[in-house]
Design a protein that fits this description.
Length: 524
Amino acid sequence: MDKKYVENQASILINHYNSKRFTTAVQKGKVMIKKFPNQLIFYNATALSLSALGKNYEAIDILKVALNLSPKNIYVLNNLGLIRSNLNQNREAREYLERAISIKENFMDALLNLGNLDLKEGKTESAKKNLYKALEQSNSSDTDITINMALGNMHQQMGNFEKAKKNFEIVSKIDQGNTAADKSISTMHRYLKSDDPHLILMIKKLEKIKDDENLKLLYFAIGKAYEDIENYKESFKYLELGNNIADKQINYNTDNDKNLFPEIKRIFKTSIKNKITDSNKKIIFILGMPRSGTTLVEQVVSSHKNVYGGGELSYMEDAIKKMLNYKAEKSKNLYESFKNLPCFDYKDLKIAELEYTEKLKSHVYNEEFITDKAPLNFRWIGFIKLIFPNSKIIHCCRNSMDICYSNFKNSFSGSSLGFCYNMKKLGNYFNMYKNLMSFWNNELKDKIYNLSYENLIINKDEEVKKLLNFCSLDWDENCLNPHKNKKPVGTASLAQIRAPIYRSSINKWKNVDDELNDLKKIIL
């Protein structure tokens, strides 16, 4: 074997990966694995590239081969842990990451990934310990950036905004082109005037930033700043620029959900409803359109002594996909999996129940109830009641224009909310959501609690009492002060939710009334 040749090929492959040429990296990586089946670097780089393309199961298969070749290779173990975490297979992820750390106690990559996994599961003390330990091992500016971003996110979710700002400021000092730090700072910072130092700094960066990803984040951050100082026209201009980039990146196709939603109705109507699971799990599902108040409602409910705040879990969608035997790399979309299905039977429901409850085991709690506030669970309401008959469904309702405008002005992680970045797509999705919710309310009637965001804001005491009564919870005074809830919050509402309930979010869309004419034509 020509060692220099292998090193050169590995360098080329890693360069493809770092430059986000993932398809090219996969093609080259597979060739190199065949040519040099004992060189683990080719397995690792190929698997990470596959994962970046959303082909996580294929990535795991490649890494399993590598692990058979070298069962104690910490890089293979770490990558398996990272990819399992991407698939929300948290228990398996933790096992791989802890195995890597047991082999090399101060292995920075695994400590970082374990810290992020801890945070995902609400284990804040463990997250803090692992992330700071990772920072101690950092020996390059690149890893300093990655770990400080993780620490900033951790402090931000815990409501420690000053500490979070310090982490993000460190990132900005190391790399002024990293606008993810600016975007994170903007969510916590209250801009009072146009000569705010951070706003001026961001505007100066506009001339220097060339790549779309960093520009997008900067546009959203500047848009938020201008909204704070009530320069709504300037705010909307930058928000629109950010949305245009995000829309192009994600390329959400309305037809996928337009086809899916009727199939959901059809399958629920034909599914066997007289033989539901015997699950006694008490889960409070808080759902609705994103930005409809789900975070606030979860903070209210999880302030109760008998309720554990689970956060925004993807477990129900994972459970639905498990029933369908759906794998993203093998199916174009969920509609393709639904359309040939006659119904869900008892066996399917048990598969979903076991998938969901297995993932719940990664959350350590003693409370009687757990919340799941993934907004898009509104799609699965009927199936939730078949899978978990003891569950409670809280549907968060809010003024349609406020919901849509709030979605439009926020940048979300991942691509699951791709409909938010284009007014026409957003309006059409909202109408589909409204139609599906009408179906669920008709089918399930009093099993869904439709909670008005505006009523909760205006008549807090009365609405909280009614909400707790629906959830079969005794009165708890703590629920009137959700801003004191110490549960980590990782959504776009993370700053607002740390303040007492306020009314200024009602009818905020009217500040940009003229710019929303196209949206009004669709949803009003």
